[in-house]
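Supplementary Methods, section 5.1.

A reviewer requested that the exact input to the structure prediction be made available. We therefore reproduce it here, unchanged from the version used in the analyses.
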Amino acid sequence: MTDKIRPFVFSCDAHVAEPPDLFLKAMPSHLQQYAIHSEADGDVRITRIGEQVILKINTNFHQHKTGEGDAAFNAQAAGGSADRSCTDASDNFVSDCAVDTKRRGARDLELRLTDMDRDGVDAELVFPSLGLMLPRIGDVEAQAEACRIWNDWAWDYTAPVRDRLIPAAMIPCIDFDAALAECQRTATKGFAAFCLWEGLNNYNDPRWDPIFALAADLGIPLVFHTGVGDINIRALKGPGGALFNYTRQMNDAVDVITQLVAGGVLDRNPGAHILFAEHSAGWLWGLAERMDEVYNGHAPSISPKLSRLPSQIVRDQVHLALQNDGNSSMAIRKGVGIDALLFATDYPHAEGTFPFSKQVIDKLAQDNPDVSTDELVAVLGGNAAKLFKRANLQGAVDTRRKELAVA
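The structure derived from this sequence is encoded cell-by-cell as follows.
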C-alpha cells in the first residue's frame, strides 16, 4: 500500500518540543525552584528542575538510528538521492527535500506537516518533550501550575492544525483534587485526552473514581506514556542496561492495568478507557488470562469482587499502541479484540517508525494476511476515532475507507 490509497493513519504517540524556557518564563516567582528547563553542555543535554539535574542525554540522542546525515538517509529511505541534502549552507531546512533527519518538525508546525505527509500520517496525539518530566515535580502547587502552563501552551500552539495534531492534557497526579480540577479545566478548553502518571502504585484507590467517572462521562480517554511518572528509567546499570531498561517499560503498563482492574476502578467506571503509548502490545492477552487465572484460583482472597472477569474488563476498556511489534500485536486481537490496538510512530524519536511508517504498515499487512481490511482500518485510525471522539476523526476515517473500497 506504500504508493496506493491507504487507511486513515493516526499515531497515538508523537511529541512536540515546547520552548526550552517555557517553564522558566511562565512559572510564578515563588515556584521558580520547580521550573523545568534544558540546555546543551557540549555533547550532553542536561534537564533540570530548578538547579536539580534530573536527566542527561547525548545531544544526538534523537538522531536517526543509522547515525548518518540527510543525504545518505534520504537514499536509504528511498525518498531522495544520495547527493541531495535537506539543508542549505546555513543548516536551514530545505522544504522540498524528502526527509529532515534532524526532525525540526518537532518544533516547527510547517515542517511537522511536511514530515507527516512524507510519512503517510494523517493525524497524531502529541505529548510534550520537556513536559515529560512534569511528574518529577514533587510540590503539589508547582506540579499543578506546570501542567497548566504546558496545557495552555500546547492548546494554543496546535490551534492552527488541530485537525492533525491533537494535544494530550498533562494532569497533575500527586493530589486527587488537583487532578480532577485540571481534568475539568482542560475538558472545558476542548482537550480530547488526559495523560496520567505511571509508577504511582495507587491506582487501586477509590479516590480515582471521580476522575475516571468524569472521563467516561465526557468520552475522554486516560492515556499513559512510558517513562512519564515516578519511574526509574535506568533501573539496571552496566552490561545490558539499555536492553533491560527499555524492555521493562512494558512492566509499568502491566502494573497500572492490574491495579485499575484489581482495585475495581475500571469495573466501577465501565465507560472509562485507558491507553498506553510506547509499551508494545503483544503481551496484553497473556496478562488478561493471567488475571483471570488468579481471580478464579485465589477467589477467597480476592477483594473487591468484580462484576466482570478481568479479561473482559481488558477487552472492554484497555488499549495499547503498537509500533514495530506488529506481528505479536496483531496476534492478540484473537484474545482481547481488535479494539485494543492503535498504531503509533513515536515521532520524532529515533526508535520510532519515522520516516518508514508506510513501510512498517505495509509489512504489518504482508506478514499478517489473515488481517482483514476492516481490522487494518481499525488499528491504523478507526480505533483512535472511537477513542478520541472530541478530535472529530470519524468522518476522515470513513471517507478513506470508502476510497479503499473502490480503489
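Confidence is low (pLDDT under 50) at residues 78-87. These observations are discussed further in the main text.
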